[in-house]
Write a structure and sequence with these properties.
Blueprint: H1 2-28, E1 45-50, H2 59-71, E2 78-83, H3 87-92, E3 100-104, E4 109-114, H4 119-130
Parallel strand pairs: 1-2
Antiparallel strand pairs: 1-3, 3-4
Length: 137
């Protein structure tokens, strides 16, 4: 009888502790992109790490992304602008220079462009990496 009472107490306690542990693991990876979400399998995810104090340095990046998206609408689905206040994601990708453009898929980083660049250079890198040969013009 005493053993049954202890088991009734221990088994639910184990489930509670397992649930807490699994929740804790999830919360440490919230800012890291999950590629099991819808949309990540069809095209890569793009992050533009932005310095709020020097936004004028990023104009060529915005122009390049808009230009690329207009020419190849199926090659990029999601672009996330990441401000300097989002330190966890910047640390995860080891961002030291702003602006930095990173394109990632479920395997890893496909493109990393750092610092000031002209729009044609950014578009060229995106095209060379993301556009299938039969679509390139």
């Amino acid at each position: 009888m005493k053993t049954a009472s202890i088991m009734l107490f221990i088994i639910p306690l184990c489930f509670i502790l397992i649930g807490c542990q699994s929740q804790e693991v999830k919360s440490t990876h919230d800012s890291i992109p999950s590629f099991s979400d819808e949309g990540f399998h069809s095209s890569p995810m793009t992050f533009l790490f932005s310095n709020d104090e020097r936004i004028e340095d990023e104009n060529s990046y915005y122009d390049a992304l808009l230009n690329f998206k207009r020419r190849y609408p199926d090659c990029l689905d999601t672009v996330k602008i990441v401000s300097t206040s989002e330190k966890e994601l910047a640390e995860y990708y080891n961002i030291m220079v702003y602006p930095t453009l990173i394109v990632v898929d479920e395997v890893g980083v496909l493109i990393r462009i750092e610092g000031y660049k002209e729009m044609p250079e950014i578009v060229g890198v995106l095209e060379a990496t993301l556009v299938p040969e039969e679509e390139a013009s």
